[in-house]
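Section 3.1 - Work completed
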Amino acid sequence: FGFLIWAGSQPIIGTKEPWDATGLAWFYYPVSLFIAGLVVGFIAPEKPKRWGIGIFVGQILYMTLDISVVLESPLFIVGILFMGLFTLLSSAGAKVGASNRLKMNKK
């Protein structure tokens, strides 16, 4: 999902990096991270923390495959740290999704 969030950034909000959006489009990145975590946490509720890590890795994979991001940005390492902080939203979403799924399974 992290890969798809980054890949969808340019066609959906018009910026190469999702955190570069302005106005209401800025919400694309944090909201999609949370929703991605929510979905995978609900689908596979065991160990939801791993889903946040997986989404983080997917984002890094997209960034490194799009070599222009690496070459054009002198702040590549800072971007990865920034991305890691944002990815906490995926972990939170995964915990919520997993919790809801487990509650449903108990009923």
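Second construct:
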Amino acid sequence: IVDHRFRDDLVGFAQFGSADMDIVGIEYHIGFGIQKDGIFTGEDIAGLGYTQVSDNNSEEGVIDVFYGQNVSDWLNVKADLQYISSPGLNDDIDSALAFTLRFTSEF
């Protein structure tokens, strides 16, 4: 895993992993992306990422776009949209869109 801060408000990452197919069922994983702080306010973040896994027969790819905002001292809301090709490493399944909305609180 490599993380790099290009500026105070911009971070990038890249990662690679491989495994024994007989044990895990996945040959490799790659991922990379960027995160920008302070898009609209000083308390928000936005990012874009890509990840791919392979099992020798198929590849699943995910494009991930997210936006998060601190709405109070103790509450953060993060929206995430993912485009998934070959879900479950199955080429017979149509690509999918997944949306999540996450609420995180700290006490």
